[in-house]
Amino acid sequence: MLRDTETRELSTRSFDLAILDGAFPECALGLVHLLKIPFMYINTVGFYTGSLSIAGNPASYAVTPNFYSRFTDTMSIYQRAINTGMQIGQNLLHMYVMRRTHLVLQEHLGSHIPHPYEMARNVSFILQNGHAVVSYPRALNPNVAEVACIHCKRARKLPKDLEDFIGASGVSGFIYVSMGSSVKAANMPESLRRMLVKTFAHLPYHVLWKYEGNAADIHDLTSNVKLSRWLPQQDILGHPKLRAFVTHGGLLSMFETVFHGVPVVTMPVFCDHDVNSAKAEVDGYAVKLDLETLSTNQLYKAIMKVIHDPRYRNAARYRQNLLLDQRSTALETAIYWTEYVLRHKGAYHLQAPSRNMTWWQYYLLDVFSLYMIALFSLLILLKRLDFRNEKVHSIHITTFASPTASRMKPKKL
After folding, report:
1. What residue ranges define each of the domains in the chain, with the CATH number in brackets?
2. Helical H runs in 61-148?
């Protein structure tokens, strides 16, 4: 990116504000530093906490599951140990990568470019794609606002071919299957593809399947299944005849699921899919499956369960009501804070002083060490005093027990 001519030309232009992806913004931070303008982050992945931590708002490992884990916010001591180890490992790897990134930035932009962490600490504001209804409650600094479901919208009328297919399902309704944009269904193993086709054939519902490959490559596809390379997901999720959503568990899909109040069956693939699905399952509107052990029978039962057990749809509707009950929309919140940062020339007064602290200072490990040293010193002092008292006491006993002392006793009259 730094070798790209158009990218380099940006440093010669004038801007008021930069808005960067909060996950891995380090290369762009070098350009922002040259432009000498305030910058904001948009964290599209709600469970990613790296940029928040650097900005002085670290998440507690005790209640915040790691981005790649399968945990929820309620963890056993064993799970917390694993979660902490995963987070520390990620942090160490990130530190190593940032050291290399710093060298690259200096090579292309000049030796005066500060370390990426130093630049990242100066972020003015962070728009976080999270909400307690779908992700987890968090303590956030004043320069962080949650804008979950900023992309969500009410369902519109579907194209005629889709509406005709759904209409043919009658009162039974239909199921929507999509593995998102990052996971291509066309690239799935043949065994999984056959399993899905076999499962859909046994369902008493129509199935609308987002499939990017060639339909001719799928054998034994039954008439109740319709394939399409692209589908208007939110218009489908908001359709009154939709009975269930089968998905990979991506965060945007999970927010859309809750926004439209639909029960879901998840088949996590990688990244944050597991942790998103685990939260949805705990909240009661999802059944989470494991692709490694998945069978036709398991998938069939999971789909039928979320459709026929009213608790799943009720939980989805409950979460929907919570998500929609907000003082302002996510878009209005994002616009307000973006304009706020512009009005106040970076709004640096919102930054937390903790951004300049090391992790051991933030968690008071240096203070804890000081107390331990003081306590250890006090114990040594008390032990020495006790030893001296014992020695003096021993001398007194020896003195009173000596024959000379016995002869000095007064005689009875």
Report:
1. 5-150+329-357 (no CATH), 160-324 (3.40.50.2000)
2. 77-109, 116-120
